[in-house]
Known about the structure:
Elements lengths: L4 E6 L15 H9 L7 H11 L4 E4 L6 H14 L12 E4 L3 H15 L7 E4 L5 H11 L3 E4 L1 H8 L8 H4 L5 E5 L1 H6 L3 H10 L5 E6 L4 H10 L4 E6 L14 E7 L2 H14 L4 E5 L3 H14 L6 E4 L6 H11 L3 E5 L14 E4 L6 H8 L9 E7 L5 H9 L4 E3 L9 H11 L1 H19 L14 H7 L34 H15 L16 H30 L2 H18 L5 H12 L1
Parallel strand pairs: 1-8, 2-7, 2-8, 3-5, 3-6, 4-5, 6-7, 9-14, 9-15, 10-12, 10-13, 11-12, 13-14
Helix pairs in contact: 2-3, 6-9, 11-18, 12-17, 16-17, 21-22
Amino acid sequence: MAASTKREVSSTLNQSWNDLGYSIHSCIHSTLARLEFDTPTPVQRACIPLLSQNKDVAVEAVTGSGKTIAFVIPMLEILGKRSPSLRQHEIGALIVSPTRELATQISQVVDEFLKDMPQFTKGLFIGGSSLTEDLNLIQNEGCHIMIGTPGRLEEILMKKSEEVNIPKSIKQLEVLILDEADRILDLGFETSINTILQCLPKQRRTGLFSATQTERVVDLIRAGLRNPVKVKVVEKDKADESSKIPLGLSIYSMICEADEKFNQLIYFLKQNKKSKHMVFFSTCACVEFYAKAMQSILPKVIEVIALHGKMKKKRNRLFEKFRSMDSGVLVCTDVMARGIDIPNIDYVLQYDPPSQASSFVHRCGRTARIGNEGKAIVWLLPQEDAYIHFISINQKVTIGDMQPVVGVANSSAKLRKLCLKDRAMYEKSLRAFVSFIQGYAKHECHLIFRFKDLGIAALARSFGLLHLPSMPELKGKKFPDFETTDIDYDSIPYLDKNRETLRQEKLKLKAEGKLESKKKFSTKNKPWSQQRELKSKKKERREKRQLAKVRKRKAAEMTEEEMNDLSKDASLVKKLKNKKITSEEFDEQFEQSKT
């Protein structure tokens, strides 16, 4: 394989679509005019001619740079010029995205272009519906363009039935797009991606798009792309060309004690109630608790929406609702940190710093997109101030200082009142606290975020705790500066009348000795601090069994020639991993195996 070409593109040039050096289809021109996209962004200027003219590309560009259009246009150009045209059940393009929200967003962009190119059909495959429904869509309507998440796409591509033969349909594939490739790998989808690649024809065009190119992404480039052109978009107007943030983004830090963070957050949201905010927390349980708290404490004119990865069917509905809002607050986890394009985000508020340093910039990048301005704020405890210097060096960003406002209302005290009033809030506060402690103890930057330096009493007050939970991390420790409430916790009612009625019935049966005990080894009988780990191990074992079944079925469907090719590829990867061959030798031998 010849050495990869590398192109570095400046973001300061201002050209029209006619200056691309490639003549795009008139239907695509019509869509661009309707959407009022007058000029291409740097990444679009670089990628559209390359990918349209049958070059594989590996693209690294800052968040919010317009990567989606950069691969949608070439994809449609290639499919439009295909001869013969795609039949109903033939799949011409596959777009793989790390999350449901990003896949949905890409699907909406494709829909706009297909209004002017109705000869192509499209399907969105992200879970939330049965596999049978997805297969029926492909069978009945056809699907020239497949968009989805790795897990669901893997399921579909491995499926073979009398009605629709997916392995046969995918042999006509012309284009593969891996969007946010680094995030796909970070989320643990490497096995799914490898399985998907094995299902696809080797003669295809591939585009790999990412905000950062890690070592694992480079390995994926070697395995999935043929002699790619590497494109890196830099912003020349910056003093530091290696900066990873857009020009219009300003980042600040606010240092305050744990029991002051929520007070400052509520004050900030009230002062900017007409703005649109994204507030990031570290865990799903924290999102659930603080979103409910904000809904109770903030004025009714400020709408608060919660969204995290454990939500199922309502995730898409909530995501679309927030996108359409002119102002409001989205309380979320890092499931919303990458690639998501929500219009007019004014502020990104990082209540909890991310567990991975790379996520810091991606969170911030939800604002100041496509030339707009925006602000991001991260809250830190006094003992965590070294994180500012660490992020400045690690992510090449400048972080300003924002001082806490003196004399703001004590909103943390209101959290305890909410917990005393509603048992649901009382339970959510305990779960949120436990999940935060667990995450903090395993933080990637453990030299900065040290569990032993946490002020547990102040932290507990920030969650409105009525008492400290029983958990291994706090075992044998005393916290005299934390005041517990002298009440019977069983007396705290649910505000939901149905839940409270059911709870009272259970309490009555328990008092009469008629309530059957739960199974001795039930996961739910374990401490909260252990439940997540046990569920994670159970899920891992289930996924391994499913993967083994998929591989066995796939092996039975493969021809002898395909089995030999797969064996050779695996042998090459193993030699590279064991350093028996160099990267150049790997590239050369891999290219020879594809010709």
